[in-house]
Design brief:
The complex is a heterodimer of chains A (about 700) and B (about 325).
Chain A (H helix, E strand, L loop, with lengths): L4 H66 L2 H8 L3 H12 L6 E6 L3 E4 L6 E2 L14 E7 L2 E12 L2 E11 L2 H11 L2 E6 L2 E5 L3 H13 L6 E7 L2 E12 L5 E9 H53 L14 H43 L3 E6 L4 E4 L1 H11 L7 H6 L3 H17 L4 E7 L1 H4 L1 E12 L5 E10 L1 H47 L7 H25 L7 E4 H18 L2 E7 L4 E4 L1 H18 L4 E9 L5 E8 L6 H4 L17 H12 L2 E7 L3 E9 L5
Parallel strand pairs in A: 18-20
Antiparallel strand pairs in A: 1-2, 1-6, 2-3, 4-5, 5-6, 7-8, 7-11, 9-10, 10-11, 12-13, 12-16, 14-15, 15-16, 17-19, 20-21, 21-23, 22-23
Chain B lengths: L3 H27 L2 E7 L6 H15 L4 E7 L11 E7 L12 E15 L1 H7 L6 H14 L13 H15 L1 H4 L10 H13 L12 H10 L4 E7 H8 L9 E3 L2 E2 L2 E2 L2 E10 L8 E2 L12 E3 L2 H21 L3
Parallel strand pairs in B: 1-2, 1-3, 4-10, 9-11
Antiparallel strand pairs in B: 3-9, 4-5, 4-6, 4-9, 7-8
The chains are: A alpha+beta (about 700), B alpha/beta (about 325).
Amino acid sequence: MYISLRIKIISLLFILITSLALVINESSTSLIHEKTREIFQQRIELLCESIKSYWESEKNQLLNNAMLYAESEKIINYSTYGLHNLLQKELERLIAKTGFHELEITLLSGQVISSEPANNRSLPSSDPGNTMLNLSLVFVKLYEDGLYLTAEVPVHKLGEFIGRLTLKRKLDDTRLKKMARNLQAEVSVAIKESIVASSLPENNRQELNKEHFRNSDRKEDVFRVAFGKSVYSIGRVALEKTSDGDQLLIYLAVSQDKMLSLVEHARSQNLRVTGWILLMALLLSVIFSEKVLISRIRKIHDGANIIAEGDLGFQIASIEGDELGNLARSFNLMAGSLQQNRNRLQHYIDRIEKLANYIQNVLGSLRTCVITWNLTGRIETANPAALFELGEFYGELEGLSLRSFLKKLEPVSRREVLDALRQVSNSENDRQFDLEIDAGAQSGTKVFQGGFSLLRATDKKPYGLILTLSNITQKKIIEQQLYHADKLSSIGQLAASVAHEIKNPLASIKTLGQLLQEETDATDTRREYIDVIVSEVDRLNGVVEQLLKYARPEGSSFREVLFSEVIKPVLSLVHHESERQRVVLVPEYRPDLRVFVDSEKIKQVFLNLIFNAIQAMNEGGKVVLRAFHDIDSPWTVFEVEDNGSGIPPATANKIFEPFFTTKQRGTGLGLAIVKKIIDLHGGKIEVSSELGKGTRIKFYLPSRQKG
Amino acid sequence: MKRILPRVLLLATLFAGCFLSACFSQSVAIKPAVKVSLVSRLEFAPELLDLIRNSLSQKLSAPCNLFFQPIEDIALFSPDKNSNLILVESGIPGNLLPPGFYKGNDYLDLVWLLSVSSNAYTKIKGQSLSTREFIELLAELKTRNPHKFPWFEPLCSKVTMRNFCRLFPENFDATSSRKSPVKPLWQENHAIAFLYRAIESDYLNPWSVEADAAMAASVFAAGDSDFATCWIPLENFLQQQNRERKSGKTWFIPFPGPEGEGLIPRIRLNLWQRQPMDTADRTINSQELPIASYSFIDLDYVEDMDWIKKNFSNKYDSLIMGDF
């Protein structure tokens, strides 16, 4: 998977910074935690010390207030002058909204006037001589309805004791909540086995009550208690004993929730700050990597692309003295080396190309087919001669397997090739063989002489096979023609000598036959036999004449004539025969066509060919006669085309041989004479025929060269 | 007299309506509250001011806010521009009043009566008391509640002291010399002795000698005394006679005389205003007041102030020292 360098670097930076930040965050949070706990411990201890002072100040405040009320002129006067209702109202007024629970005066008469009207009562009158009445007291007392801090002070009018004023403050939940607010700690008061008042919520109070109940020693202590999900640091302080002698314990509870939430807040704050720092670091990384790293790497990358596109002269500018600078320097060195190597390589390539071209030209110029197979048995190369000679037969040569190459050959040729291959692979000696392929209707049969050689690599190991094929078709044809001509020449000479020997007896026979005719009456029955003898002798004489004409070395009289002067007498001669055979003669030539021929001999050629064509059409037909100059060649082309029965392929190559005929009364010399006349003109003749469709005889005669 | 009274009342009503609406419109135009200066030697306890405010508000028949400014010494009176009305005690010379004020035809009578608590009312059943009956009742109440003084008086009040000193001789002389221009001054010490003996007998709260009218009113209102004298508008006193006493309501009776119901000291507060009026005198109350059944002592400002100036200290000392 492709991951950009920038992402890798940024990811690495991010992971590093994140790890560092988390470690710092955790360690700082732990430190905060530890320090906060320490501070908490100190705070609880301080609170435990403070509560004593606070308690004293609470008592002093109560006592001071009681003394202040005891000095109130109205209270004194109302008490003195029996204005109890006013006194009560004044007591109510005085402690209204002060937080004190009750203010009452016990008069000497025993009358108790309280701010709580229900508590007004009469007690036995006091003894004014009792000096205890002049004492001021502050004490704690547990009543049925709760715990009270009570201050008692004497009330005097003009120095005379008139009663005692009692100021009570109930240490209830409300008061303790106020204390809690002042102390910033939850305050609970316990007497005996239970918590009598607390600023804590009810469920927490019950938990504390259980803790108080479990802890029997009642010593001062600092401990931790979990109230539900909240953890409290608790400080226990023994304050004083109540008026009934019970120990008064104060529990100071400070919730660690706030601390924990502060720590959590600090942690989250740290995380947030860390997050911001990370974000900033990320942004800076992006900018830094872009400015310092990526842009320079991109320069190198672009340079590499430029070099890849071929500009090896490219050099990276503004190289700085760091690793990327070194990389850029190396890159420039590499580019320089590449340039040198490229030049050298180009030189070699040029040479190789020249050599390859040379070889290609050699191979292309060769008339010999050169085909190479690699070790996989596929044709790797084939020179133009091979493509030309074998292209029509094999189609696409390149990639053709040896098997396919062999498969298409005739069995005889295939065997020859296989033998040669075997020999090459065994003895490593080349073996020549002849290969004949049918290259199609246009090219005909081609004959090649070839041989296999092993293709070796530089290390002399076999790399493949080389097949060389030379087209020897013409050579073979010439050899055949020479052989044929030689054979015809022998036949002609033989026939001429035979004909010469035959001619004299035939003349004797004819003369004697004519004598017999003259001597025999026309009505004589023998006369018919004599006539047959004479006519047959004439026919034999004609054959002999033709034979002598074929074998006789005749002189030629070439001259340029209009073709029409040649062909028209021929057409007149065959006119009756063509009509009789219901054959239409169609001459196609330009009237001004001039040919350079021996006109008498060419008339003989056309005469023989037209007669052959007419005789090939038993039920009538058409014979087309064409003559024209082939502009691209030095030949004048003549054609005689019929739509007769055609020539069987087996006999097609024998029709020009002397005495070869398919007719009952033919001499087999007509087309042989045609061939001889054409040869005499230096031309060539071709036959193309298709059974049932017709035959076309096409012969070429040299046009007269100008100049 | 009975024929004329409805017409007078009708005219008074019409006039008062015009006057008060004029005042009200003025007050509304200037300030939504009406400031009333009270020029009198009386100590106006809050309760008395409330009664006067009620009477005056009923007369103004408009939701005016009345602010009272009691002024004991007329020489110190300097009304500001917001003072539209002045209630001036009858007898104060008009030349002592600031210029720009004119005496109107409206007035308000205040009477000095003995307040009776509901506790004591059950004993007297609304009847007037003689001095003896009063003493006996005080003794009975004291016996019932030894820690309580049944009677409280604002004896620090000069006017109260003057009233006692004026009332006792007048009551004793009521039958023989009511109309005599010479007052039997030699009998004033009876009042002091009466008060002193009452204190000594724990009937009268000894703190009375340090109490003013407001204090006395507070003590009585708190239920710490069953009797206390006070000033109330005459109409309030007369109206109580026409209705059943309701629970918790204070009952007022004339201070006891030797033979029963005594005389009732009375002062008149005349209404002065910034615009002159030219109609017949009338009370601020439009109701017909059944005053014929009571005997009043119309206190004279000049005479009383002269007495206070000359005799109050001596009388007060006598009360404290018991030297009469």
